[in-house]
Design goal:
Blueprint: H1 18-34, H2 46-62, H3 75-97
Helix pairs in contact: 1-3, 2-3
Length: 101
């Protein structure tokens, strides 16, 4: 007899490239040590500032600079962090815009 598990519609976490995602975690860890845990959530005017940081990291990458000189992590890992932060703020704003039921 075979077991059954109805998970076809659930998110497939196994699709994430964990070795690549580890670079993002390294960037977050560096930021946590430099500032404090979750400091990025407290930055004033955060969306604009992280959008600018995103473009700085993308520009560096496009110029052929692979690693950020301060963290020694790939600029694209920094860019992903900026996008994650931006998405976090967007989702938070969307939740606040919803009328309470």
């Amino acid at each position: 007899m075979n077991g059954v598990k109805y998970d076809q519609e659930k998110p497939r976490w196994s699709l994430l490239p964990w070795d690549v995602l580890e670079w993002v975690v390294k960037v977050l860890t560096f930021g946590s040590k430099k500032y404090e845990d979750h400091n990025w959530q407290k930055v004033p005017n955060a969306v604009d500032r992280y959008e600018s940081a995103l473009h700085r990291h993308l520009c560096a990458h496009k110029k052929g600079v692979f690693l950020d000189p301060e963290t020694h992590c790939p600029h694209l890992a920094h860019a992903i962090c900026c996008l994650l932060f931006w998405l976090w703020f967007e989702l938070r704003i969307k939740r606040e815009e919803k009328p309470h039921e």
